[in-house]
Amino acid sequence: MKTILRLMVGLLVWTTSWAQTDTTKSNPAAFDQLFGRDTTLRTAKDVQLKLNMDATYDRPFLSVGKSPVSVGGYLEANTQYMQTDGVTEGLSFQMRRMTIFLASTINRRIKFLTELEFEDGTKEINIEFAALDIELNPMLNLRGGIIMNPIGSFNQNHDGPKWEFIDRPLSSTTIIPSTWSNVGFGIYGKVYRRNWVWAYEGYVTNGFDDRIIVNGENRTWLPATKANEDRFEESFNGVPMVTLKTALKRRRVGEIGISWMGGVFNKFQDDGLVLDKRRRVDVWALDFNTVLPTKTVLNGEWCWASVDVPTTFSQQFGRMQQGGWLDVVHPIVRRRVFGWNTAVLNLALRVERVDYNVGKFTETSDPIFDELWSVVPGISFRPSPTTVIRANYRYLWHTDLLGNPPARTAGFQFGFSTYF
């Protein structure tokens, strides 16, 4: 931990001096007015080097007159017919989510943005992001409020209209809790050098609680802690969680990101009385994306989670989890269609795997399973870059803890997602 922090501080000092010798010759005020959302972007060339961590501001907003507040959002809905081992519940229509963005430039280099999400109609209403940003230098910006923890790529860059698939990736929703956010503060920044961009983020926030091992799933399940609404008010155990990410991108090559999130998840003392030792949860993620000369987009992520499960728990609670996904998207048609000048028809394929219990049984040394594989071919039509109509066929097989023949789930999904 201390080594990682020293490395981040050293890189910050070095790249801050580097950025000061490579400032843009353009007019920053005019550029901010044109591109407006991320003040660390200084030239049109910089816009072509956007990273996953830029997704917070990389959204369409609408301003009316002299109103200080810009508004935006997105919607996604679909229908699906799925069956598991021949058993089906029939055809269902789903209103997955509607999200509203509100942003305001309070003063030059002082900005506020919030993201409010309504899931499954109004079954869940969440504030996913609500933070104040203060820019001191392109390499040193302050952020505080409800922060989207920058673990992996999908957690920040999760907007439905950006994806060709109806379901979110398994590992990014069941190992890394999807749209995982907490109250806290931290710093972020980036530096450009010719065809390169390097960026970092670092935050301290409230963290997980013991729901990750005491839950209805009867397995280690990090998403269970999202049910703790008190995490936006107080820490479960008084120990902050730390999240660090760094990303590097080269024009016409691609982006690679490395991130880590960790902290204590249990209540180890109460009113000075020691209840247990401090038990940690640590999550690492590696993500990348690139565009091949054929215009084929490759986008992927792999993550690991280590949980200090008490020895009194059975072996069905995994102490190590891992999983990842790879998306391949290839445009087969790019032309004017029905009056839409920038229409694109894409073929897409997602391959993903998660292992919720990496290890072997103590008694027999046989491998522990509890794993999922999924293959999702699809086709999507984009009448514009901000709207996607998509059809997927999902095939998933789940092997239980003992490695019995897998349960197989398959079905069709059709739906749309659009910014508004």
From TrEMBL:
Keywords: Signal. This is Porin. Residues 1-19 form the signal peptide. It comes from the Bacteria.
